Every structure is written in structure tokens, then in C-alpha cells.
Fold these 2 entries.
Entry 1:
Amino acid sequence: MKYEEMPAVFFAENRKRLLPFVEDKSLILIFSNNQMPRTGDQYFPFRQNANMFYMSGINQPNAILAICPHHPDPDLREILFVEQITQEKIIWHGCKHTVESLRNLSGIKTVLWTTDFETVLRKLAYHVHHIYLDVAESIKFHSEIKGQGSLYVDKIKSNYPLHYYHRLFPLLADMRLIKSPYEIEQIKEACRITEKAFNKVLQFIKPDLWEYEVEAEIIHEFIRNRACCAFDSIVASGKNACTLHYVDNNSKCKDGDLLLLDFGAEYGNYASDLSRTIPINGHFTARQKQIYDACVRVYEYAKTLFVPGMTILKVYKKVSIVMQQELIDLGLFSKADLENQSADYELMKKYFPHNISHFIGLDVHDVGSTDVIFEEGMILSCEPGIYIPEEQIGIRIETTIMVGYPPVDLMPNIPY
Ligand SMILES: [Mn+2]
């Protein structure tokens, strides 16, 4: 790995912290993400299942973590199954890990081959009543492709039909909400790298560049800082900024237009998320400045709301009141229009159609729903935007922020 590994004690603590939340006589199973085949003999770049990384630090496919806290054999209480390290694999791929280095990385003493999993599983299952399986869950996202855990579910359930089965995902999701000091350091590093890339863009940007040239500057800066993209970078000039997830990045940056950038470095599997909107020629028009300043006022107000006790939903409601007034002042609708709208926020959503925030962590849209009550150490985005397609203007300002009294902007030096 290019980045600094996190200490094994972090992963060991996570495993320990889970135990009070599971039944007595339990077995917990977490699976690596699969390699996703491309065509020919290639795979898409591998990215670990966030839960597997969180509990083991292991960044490779075909690995399984088994935790069986009350097993009579102490050597079987924590087991890491990994793909067998063979001489042939070493010739092709090098010796990325030894059994010893995997032990040091994860803090797990017992490292076995994944091919031994079914045999060992019998020894584990015999001593437990409950089996917790990690299957990815999301309110907003569903994939037809079966990932990691779900491929094992049917087989394990049919081999052990009389055990009690439980969802592991919600337990780990709750744990992942509050970031440990180790995680905060990783995210801060991701933010610092994002800042470097933005400063590069500020020096680089001028009329007639292509959006992909700007994107290339960002990626260049990420890689030379041992990071990658936490998500596909949005480099959207002019009217492209009104397409919220514009990632084509293949238009020319025109003199007089604005450029909306939404990107973030991922460092050691931890994400950051930044949006800035800049004038391509260095100068705002009067109207651009008027809309930009409105967005800045909403942004600065919104940032103060990331305090314990709030929720994303509560932040959204408070921000909406301020945003609605700004949109009225920009002449986009009137107070009377607002009183007559048929549904809450209907008019505002025309110009600010997305949410104000999401959790950030091992995934850029991390675990945590809009009704989770904020506690210190939670990390989120703060991202108001104003999009006016008829004026070909889209503006978003976003930072990565940590809940606290007062909230801590983790990108304090990035200008806006
Ligand atoms: Mn975001």
C-alpha cells in the first residue's frame, strides 16, 4: 500500500467494541469485496468492503474475518482467512504480504487460507447458536450484482439451517458513525491532499482549458500524495454545473463562465469531499458575484449547525429557511409564491435540489441516515448550492466538517 497503515490496535479495538452488541455464543463473519471482472483478463481496480477494512485492516479480495468470542479454543476466537500465498502468485504479483505481516497489520494471531474456511466453519458453528453475517445495506442504493457477504448467505444458511441469523451491518454502521482519533487523522490527511489539489487548480485555471485538463491536475496531485479519488471528480463549467453529477468533464472552460469543482482525495481508504466554484477568467460578473455571495452566506450559516443534538434533517430545515430568503432576494421567486407553493420546499428545490449534508468516512457517502443525532466526532459534508439553469450558473460550496462545540472545519485553509 502506498499510504501509512493504521495501527493494528485500531482494528483490534473495533473488534472488541462490537462484542457487547452481539448475543452470547455468536459467530461473526465479514467478507472481503469481490474482484469485479472487466473484460478480457482484467479486473476493475479493487476496493475493499468498508466493514472488512474497519474490522481487520486487510485490503485484499478473497479474505474472510471470523470472530467467535467464546470458542473453547482461544486460537479460533479471531481468524483471518486469506488467499493462499503461493510461489506462482509471488512470481506474478510479488510478495505483498506474508502471514506475519498480515498478523501485524490486523492484530489477529490466527491466519489461515480461505480454502480452509468451510472446514474451520464447522468447528466454529458447532459452538454457537447465533451467526452474524455482513451483507451491505443502504436505504438509497441497491445493486443487482451480489456483493461479498450475500454470496455466502445461502450456502451458510443451508449448511447450518438451525442457527439464528442476524444482520451485522447495522451494528457496524452504528460503530462507524463516530470517528476514532486514528480515523480523524486519516481524513485530515485526505483533506490536506484535497487542499493541495485545489491550490494547483487555482494556479492552473484559465479560459480555453478543457475540463479534463483540470481533472488531470487534480488526479496528478492525488497520486503524488499517495491518494486516489474518493469518487469521480466533477469539473463542470458553465451550464454543466447544473447537472449535479456531471462527470464527463469534456467541455471547454469558456471565458466568463464559472467552474464548479467537486472532488476529494481518498487516503488510506478514508474519504474527503470538497466543492468550490471559481470564475474561469478570475473575475465574477455582477450577477455571478450576487449568486455566489448568497451561497457563501448560506454556507457560513450552515457550518454553525453541525453541533451535537442536530440531525441532517434538522440542518436541512434550518438552512432551507435561510436559502429560501436568499432565493427570493435573487429574484427567483417571491414571498407570495412561497406561501402558495403546493409542497414544502417545492420552489427552493428547483434551485437547490440536493441535500445539505451526508456522512463521510470509509465511503464518501458513509453510513448514517438523515435522522442520526449528531455526536462529537461524527464527520459530514456541508454543501449548499444554487443552480439556475436558465442563467447557465451552478454554484456549490462544500467542506468536510466534524461535529463539535464549535464544529471543526477539516478544510480550514481552502479559500472560497
Ligand atoms: Mn458531498
Entry 2:
Amino acid sequence: MDMTDEFYKRLKATLDEYEKIIITTHIVPDADGLGSQISLCLALRELGKECYCVNEEALLERYDYLDPKKTILSLDEFHSKHKKFKPDLVIIVDTNKISRTGLKMSQYLSAFSNIIYIDHHPSEKVSLGVHFIDTNASATGEITGRLIKKLGLEFTKEMALALYTAILIDTNTFRYPSVTHYTHKLIAELLETGVQTTEAYNHIYGARKLKQMHLLGHILKNCQTNSTGEIAWILITKKQLDQYESDLEDTHAYINNLLVLENVKIACMFREEGRRIKLSLRSHGDIDVGEIAQELGGGGHNHSAATVFEVPPGFNQEEIIQNSLKKIEMFLKQLNAA
Ligand SMILES: [Mn+2]
């Protein structure tokens, strides 16, 4: 949508009306969801509001450094620590679907009518005053950063580290076409608080265990491409994760390695997640992988999108992978012919 002044005015006016707020995000939250939650929560507290971040699951230990004030609580923790707290506003960040907040969380949220979304993913239906969606923003953290300024606040170092990390992770370290001069202007302001770029980078991409490094090696060694080299793919199975003592979140950025191949136009990462297979798609931005993902039942941006396949009984993973690769190849053929 837009990133005009009007957008932030409306958003500010909405927040001004409420005093008791919870902020949530999608399941298996990434640093964009978490960083947006944490910084917005700190900002709203500075304005004197009572605010908590509440997620389906507790914060993973690896993200503790982003949340020194412990703003993020699991739904269970929230219920036991703040029994009497009744939010008058719920903010969902970095997704625009309630179902993505998790099973228990969506159940809990079904009791509330005042819910707004702050997000940068395209949404099928957008209602004004409810969906604050700017698909031009590189990250929800970018929207949150501008919002905090609009609220008349200065960035604290805690807010800035959370936002810097959010944008870092969602832009593949400022490499995606979604990065604009607006992004970098905001980054400049965040760095003014004393955030150290190397430290922020190493927290999120560094500090890997040797086993995790070997998993990456194993996965990339088995990378395949189609005959023209335009489509590249990797597969990550549960068995490999166990074998290398790694978890799903460790593999988050693996797909970015495929984009350095010389002819590649579409990068695909298939990941076994329980009974489902998640397919992530990336491009350099010239090919709209969001459209491909949509045709495969998912969605996303031009350069970054995803979909999830249920594996029906009797089907095997390989069939699903080959079928979707065929569809992606068809899509590319049509584009190349046009
Ligand atoms: Mn995001």
C-alpha cells in the first residue's frame, strides 16, 4: 500500500485511543516479528501504556539478547502472570492472518474484536483502520521504526538493536530489492544510538556450532538446478536436522546461498516440517515469486515468498517436490516466452 504520512497518522491515531495493549506475531517468529514486537512494546510503555508481547511459544534463548526487558511472554506465562489483564487492543505484527499466530493464540484472540495488523506482506483483503500494511517496506521493523518516530519518541539503544536486526534479517543483510533510501535513512538513525553493526550481525548470523556449519555444507553439496540453471533447489529433512543436531530456525537463511549461482532466477528451499513441506522461494526481484507462491497456495513478495504443502497419506515428499518444480518451470517458461 502506501508509506505516506497519512498511513502513520492513522496508525498513531489508532494507538492513541488505547491504553492496554498486547502485541503478538506469527508462529516460529523470526527477528523481524520479534524485533518489531519488542521495540513497539518499549515505545508504547514509554507513552505510559500497559503493554505486553504475547506469543504462542516462549522466546527462544538465542533471542534473549534482543529482549533485555523481557517484554515477550508465552501465552501460558502471560495467563499465569497477568491473570487480570484485559487488553483493549491487540496488535498483530509481521503477518496479516490470525491463524498464523498459532493454534492456542488464535483461540485466545477469537475473544477480541479490537485487532489491528502492522505488516509488509501483501494481503488479499485489506480494511482501512484494521490493516496497516505497507508492502513497500523492507520489513515490519521498517514500518515500526517510522511509527515510533511518528509517536514522537527517540530510539533507545534497545529499540534500535531490535529494529536493526529485524531489517537486517528481512533484507538478507540489505541485499533485497525492497531496500530503499528510506530504509537506509532509518538505519542511520538506529546506528546513532550506538548499535554496533558487527555485533548485531554476529548475534544473528554468527555464533554457529560446527555441526550447524556441517549441515549447511551437506545441504549445499546436494543443491540441484534445472537444465538451464535458472531454477535451483535444496531440500532439508527432519532426519538431517537430527543428524546434525540443528533445528528449523538454523536453516532460515540457507536459501539465500542459492541466489549467487550464475544463471539462477528462482531459488527454492523445501523443508520438512512435521507432516508438511514448506517451500520458500526467492528471486532477485525481477521474477515475481509471490505470484508463483500464490499459484501454489501461498503468497509473499516479488523477491521472497512461501507456501506449505500437506503431505497426504500415500504421497511421498519426492512427488510433491517434483510436481512443484514442474509447475515452477512452466511458470518460468511462460515468462521467458512472453
Ligand atoms: Mn517480515
